[in-house]
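Q: Now give one record:
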Amino acid sequence: MISFTNVAKYYENGSTSVALDEINLKINTGEFVTLVGKSGAGKSTLIKLIIGEEQPTRGKIIVAGQDVGKMRSTDLPTLRRKLGVVFQDFRLLPKKTVHENVAFAMEVAGRLEREINEVVPQVLDMVGLADRAGHFPNQLSGGEKQRVAIARAMINRPMVIIADEPTGNLDPVNTWEIIKLLTKINELGTTIILATHSKDIVNALGKRVVSIDKGRVVRDEQNGRYILN
């Protein structure tokens, strides 16, 4: 599904800054992987490499059978349709309703209007927002906004959903609702990669834990805990 082989990412800002170094990692279909580490450890860089937003300095990254480092920029949208991404800051379109925000992802993928009108209500029902379809983002709570973002990420039935600190701006109640939703999506067969700072979330999930520190994978455990100092 996803594999990193001897991957490094350096930035040149007057001097060389090492974001990732010698990353070897494999994520299999259907896994739920929590990605942990302090701010600046390299979690976000790793995610950017998976979705092709950044290119590795060296090494090979394979996503869904494709070498991301060798892909042309024109081919990246096709890859990204296989990946759903959820961010901490929601990134909703403020002048579109909940329905329109989710439908937009299907429109960009070239889906037919008939299919959009059929599928969007189904997905909104799954995330518990069927009664919010006509609302705009400024009429929603933080938890509701994040559920819209998750609906948008899953609308094209991606192979993988990558959630980058999706609960960072949420209160405890909404945090656990989002985690339950991601778990449910995983149980339906979608691979989940969850980047988080929360020890409580990681330890409660009891899923595979990949710990990154100073650009390196320092721990990779099944049924792991967040014990990075």
About this structure: The chain has a mean pLDDT of 92. The CA atoms of residues 111 and 200 lie 39 Å apart.
